[in-house]
Amino acid sequence: MAIPGSKSITARALxxxxxxxxxxxxxxxxxxxxxxxxxxxxTALGYRVSxxxxxxxxxxxxxxxxxxxxxxxxxxxxxxxxxxxxLVAAGHGTFRFDASxxxxxxxxxxxxxxxxxxxxxxxxxxxxxxxxxxxxxDGIKGGDMELDASLSSQFLTAMLLAGPLTRExxxxxxxxxxxxxxxxxxxxxxxxxxxxxxxDGNTLRVPPGGYRATTYPIEPDASTAxxxxxxxxxxxxxxxxxxxxxxxxxxxxGFVEVLGRMGAEVTIGAxxxxxxGTGRLTGITTNMRDISDTMPxxxxxxxxxxxxxxxxxxxxxxxxxxxxxxxCADNLRRLGILVETGEDWIEIQPGVPVPAEIGxxxxxxxAMSFSxxxxxxxxxxxxxxxxxxxxxxxxxxxxGALRGEWDF
Length: 408
Ligand SMILES: O=C(O)C1=C[C@@H](OP(=O)(O)O)[C@@H](O)[C@H](O)C1
Ligand SMILES: C=C(OP(=O)(O)O)C(=O)O
Fold this sequence. Notes:
CATH topology of the largest domain: UDP-n-acetylglucosamine1-carboxyvinyl-transferase, Chain
Number of helices: 13
Protein name: 3-phosphoshikimate 1-carboxyvinyltransferase
Keywords: Amino-acid biosynthesis, Aromatic amino acid biosynthesis, Cytoplasm, Transferase
Shape: globular
Pathway: Metabolic intermediate biosynthesis; chorismate biosynthesis; chorismate from D-erythrose 4-phosphate and phosphoenolpyruvate: step 6/7
EC number: 2.5.1.19
Strand order of the largest sheet: 2-3-1-12
Helix content: 25-40%
Number of strands: 21
Bound molecules: shikimate-3-phosphate, phosphoenolpyruvate
GO molecular function: 3-phosphoshikimate 1-carboxyvinyltransferase activity
Largest sheet: 4 strands, mixed
Number of domains: 2
CATH architecture of the largest domain: Alpha-beta prism
Structural class: alpha/beta
Mean pLDDT: 98
């Protein structure tokens, strides 16, 4: 089962390639709304991103954006909205960032605070701590700073990526962190582009000096793969995803371990992962702080377990494309399932779902997760199937073909 490229890795690779000295080729980046927003953003800033073939070629500009006055529209992509201001801040000019209503609602305040602490002029033109924002950039000196990434790791990733572009480097003391595996992706990719960040307790020391261009193949997206692994687990079928194995960078591959604890047969090979449904799915209590993009995947198959499924420590799913704890609870109730939620947890009782329309709230993960549920429940419909375009525009075609093949 071929899964499209990782959104997170594509976004980071675009940033690193744009900032690097030389020309970078990205092997099979993800083609989706989020990554196109990122690439379009770079183009608006005056970077050369050639997207004529399945591999993209980026001409790096270590000196910063070619434009000295530009507007960047980030659509729904938090990666673009949170990483690109750091890239331009190290350059020179006036750069305005705006985004969709959905992304305008999501927080960027810790990033603004971090950039301002380094002397960068960041202005919120409507609501403090939210897009739209303007960066009036004149390079960054660098130095010591504190960063609170307890609402999103993306704030830390943004500052790590920008660190080598500062004159003196950055020493970032992290005061809170969620989604920690995403920071590991950032650090591993920075190494591939020639920058070694040193860990010193809670402080990350980022040296100055910039990035080196390279050739970078993009891993398949582990969060996207979760829908197909979950599908196998609830149907007794088998799914193998090549390109995601023991050496994978993405923490979200850890979702298969949750399925394994629930009774699915899981094999993580050197360069592929297989999940086989066994007909058994036990209830579970699990902490998903590290892999919370897969919380809706688990919530959507939880009714088929033989006991309650309790997912803990996922507060920050409330500030994603929608309030995902609330959206999962609401949709499970529409399906006739008993659910309880707290500030940072959800508990789902076993049951036999009834037909219903799913309210996607324009959230690709709600749409894809409850599509998995529909393998076992006739007449589940989505109010906005097209919202999957954020990370996987072809999802319904691919999922439909699999459903046909499995005869579900
Ligand atoms: O850095 C990244 O690429 C991402 C980090 C995670 O966000 P949070 O750190 O906000 O949880 C994840 O949910 C998002 O889909 C992608
Ligand atoms: C939270 C997500 O996206 P973003 O990169 O916009 O935060 C997601 O893809 O589930």
